[in-house]
Amino acid sequence: MPSKSTFSVAPISAFVDKYLKYSRESIDLFAKDITWATHTNDINPITKAEHHMDALDFLNMLNARGVREDLAIFDPPYSPEQLKRSYDNMGLKMTGTCALRTANWSKERDVLSQCIEVGGRCLSFGWDSNGMGRKRGFILEEILLVCHGGGHNDTICLSEKKVSEQVLLWPPSKQGPQQTQYSMLSTNPSSNCSGASENAL
Question: Strands 138-147 and 155-162, how do they pair?
């Protein structure tokens, strides 16, 4: 079953952990009460995060300080409804401009890309596969689909590696297409989702 705390779902927690354990310095923009990253933020002041700022303000602060991470965890509200619920819980009013941010979080991703060093990774979570993308110098390394059963959206987990500070107009490797690992797991024992994983071009 899905959970409002993404990382309480075992396959998703394991997905993060396998990257986090090799990380030197990391960032979590929407951390809630999860404190596994070096720099944690959540706009809700009652959470355990180190900072309680708007995500874009938090990123601009880190960028101004010259902070460069080798791992970023990007788990924002997945929809305007989820964002509104977060604002309501804090007694804040959500504006139309705020709601539009959930479409792709492009401003946040633009600044986040500047905070990730070449060779670093961004782990993105949501109901779509919009990640950092080639225009920000990232290539897709791994996709994990976590099925929560009927009537629930799958959680799509992406791992992207930053290979350039420049826009990528062609594959960065001359050795052929990059391999992306695709996996599908289920949190519902009665689900028909396969637990198999495979490598695909």
Answer: antiparallel
pLDDT, tens digit, 9 for 90 and up, residues 25-43:
999 999 999 999 999 999 9
**What's the half-sphere exposure (Cβ side, CA atoms, 13 Å) at 167?**
2
Contact assessment for residue 31 and residue 47, using Cβ atoms and an 8 Å cutoff? yes
Sign of CA dihedral 117, 118, 119, 121: positive
> pLDDT per residue over 101-135, tens digit each?
767 899 999 999 999 999 999 999 999 998 999 99
Q: Is this model's pTM higher than 0.85 or not?
A: no
Measured CA to CA, the distance from residue 53 to residue 48 in angstroms comes to 13
CB burial class (10 A; 0-12, 13-18, 19+) of residue 125?
buried
Domains and CATH numbers, the chain: 6-200 (3.40.50.150)
